[in-house]
Predict the structure.
Amino acid sequence: MTVVRRKPQMFMEDFEKLALFAKHEEMPIWPEFLFGRLGFKVPSYGIHAEILRWLTQQLLSARSDLRLCNGTDIEVEKGGTGRAHADGVLALDGALAGYGNWVGPAVALMVVEITSNDADTDQRIRAEKVTAYAEAGIPVYLLIDRDDRDHVVHYAVEDEMYTRTIRRKFGRPLELPDPVGLTLQTEELGRLTLGLLTSARPTTPGNSLDPAR
């Protein structure tokens, strides 16, 4: 997909004020600003959250020096002109300390996104964020694609582009190149996305495990 660079719809200062207001008011949206366009990411729960839980456990059990910071606001694009709300940012333990509302991309070893039922998921996650994360110099971008039931790893940044991609179906080993340097087994991920695993946690209103999210 082609990424269109637009004349910014608003000044960055105004966007960051909007994003801060949304956070403080606990609004059910996460503003993003990619290639001059204002967008809104809708929070996902249910299986989406369970996938992040699974990935966190897998990564930390393999490397105790890492932390997967879920729901992280990060500066992206060339020169840090964009803003994204990543499902996860993998960094060394303590690396995010000292940052304000927006984390600098230099601390990120990997960013993680999970497809959802947002109307613009195809364009935003599969196209714009591939370019935005590469331009920011983030070494690895992991996309967990629930629609196609595969995990896609973009890596090897050259000239502000990812030059290599690994695509594997759920259930096949998930190879995460350096600087992560891990291979994860994904059988549980395959079952999770089919909704075959049940949770022992009680279901309460507003916290139901909805496989559609």
Summary: The first strand starts at residue 30 and ends at 34. Residues 47-62 form the longest helix (16 residues). The domain at 44-193 is CATH 3.90.1570.10 (tt1808, chain A).
